[in-house]
Design a protein that fits this description.
Blueprint lengths: L14 H9 L3 E2 L5 H28 L2 H28 L1 E5 L3 E6 L5 E6 L3 E7 L2 H5 L2 E8 L6 E8 H17 L5
Antiparallel strand pairs: 1-2, 2-3, 3-4, 5-6, 6-7
Helix pairs in contact: 1-5, 2-3
């Protein structure tokens, strides 16, 4: 039996404290490390399914030395997908600019930066899929005006932060002209 005391549980910030922290200054929004696992999972599925479907018939019908080479195709695809997921995670960043809006940067080969000004926000959604719930993550969807069915999603936020950001933006939506 160990004599060391267990660490004290950390207190969760209240919604008001989280909103105050968001309103202080421009800052990157936290992304959970579990987001990397989700990106890796989708990247591996996207790489292994097509290469496996190509490699399996090749392994069956090709002569022996070439069959083993075809079997390496899914392994190579998995390695590339793993590396791609790590680079995508490193490039993925959302920033909250109080009184202005949200900026989302992402991409490895094709990089994009989406600027969502608060004046164009129509409504906000916080959602969690099964993997998100398992790892305590949430996605915040920012629905904007001016385009049909356009929304920007910020993935991998801690649930409390996604809800706090939504609450920080909601009063501004209600105060904006045209919102009642």
């Amino acid at each position: 039996m160990s004599n060391t005391a267990s660490p004290l549980p950390q207190e969760q910030p209240t919604a008001a404290q989280a909103i105050k922290a968001l309103n202080r200054a421009e800052r990157p929004l936290e992304k959970l490390p579990a987001l990397l696992q989700v990106i890796r999972l989708w990247s591996l599925l996207g790489a292994l399914v097509p290469t496996g479907l190509i490699a399996l018939p090749c392994m069956i019908w090709m002569p022996q030395p070439w069959a083993w080479a075809a079997g390496l195709l899914p392994l190579l695809a998995a390695c590339l997908a793993w590396r791609y997921a790590a680079r995508y995670f490193a490039a993925y960043q959302a920033r909250w600019l109080p009184e202005e809006g949200v900026v989302l940067s992402e991409g490895v080969w094709w990089r994009s930066e989406v600027w969502v000004p608060m004046a164009r926000l129509q409504h906000l959604d916080v959602s969690q899929g099964p993997l998100d719930r398992r790892w305590g993550m949430a996605s915040l969807s920012l629905h904007t005006a001016g385009t049909h069915d356009h929304k920007t999603r910020i993935h991998g936020l801690p649930l409390a932060q996604a809800q706090a950001l939504r609450e920080a933006l909601l009063p501004r939506l209600k105060a904006a002209p045209g919102h009642e």
